[in-house]
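Example 4.3 (complexes with small molecules)
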Amino acid sequence: MKLIFLGPPGAGKGTLAGLVSKEYDIPQISTGDIFRDAIKRETELGKKVKEIVGRGDLVPDDLTVSLVRERLGQPDAQGGYILDGFPRTIPQAAALEAFQSMDAVVNFTISDETVIGRLSGREVCKSCGAIYHVKNMPSKVKGICDKCGGALYTRPDDTLESITNRLEIYKKQTEPLVSYYRKKKLLRDIDSSKSPEDTLLQIRKVLGKPK
Ligand code: ADP
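Answer. The structure with adenosine-5'-diphosphate bound is encoded below.
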């Protein structure tokens, strides 16, 4: 199954991609995670994108597309995958379409207020990437990941300034993908304003049982 998870920052794409990846046994491919990992390891790519990602701007399309193209060529992606955070612009979607055909695009819908509330309290595990929220979904021990014991941190782009910028960019550059994929009859709308469990139930409904 080849899937795209589409939606504003903070809609829960990353959290749900983790759950769906386990359940359907397909890898989660997150461009945001790839960029953050490159920044952490201070690779050439990391140096190029560090400031862009910090501000919440988009990494140039050509760079992002070639990265995804390479990732989708890896052996573990041959039986399907979840694209989490890609495509984010019409040119990215067009480039993807030229070499891969998708089965469904899951569209996460949520209000701006809920998004801002979620992102301003988000915490992420440094080791395994699990996602928490100081109020809505706290870890059992403060600052420590329930799953692997790693340290939790706040993403440097989860400042109010960067969050506002990411939301604006989403509306201008990414939201046009909703009608793009609706026209292609690939779009499956889900309401992601409630709990991850509730969202997972809706995703199961629209995707059907894993094979
Ligand atoms: P969020 O959905 O919370 O904004 P992501 O982890 O998906 O965060 O992405 C973090 C950052 O990585 C983005 O703000 C952007 O700078 C960069 N990025 C991720 N995916 C893409 C993409 N498809 N095109 C361009 N930039 C991207």
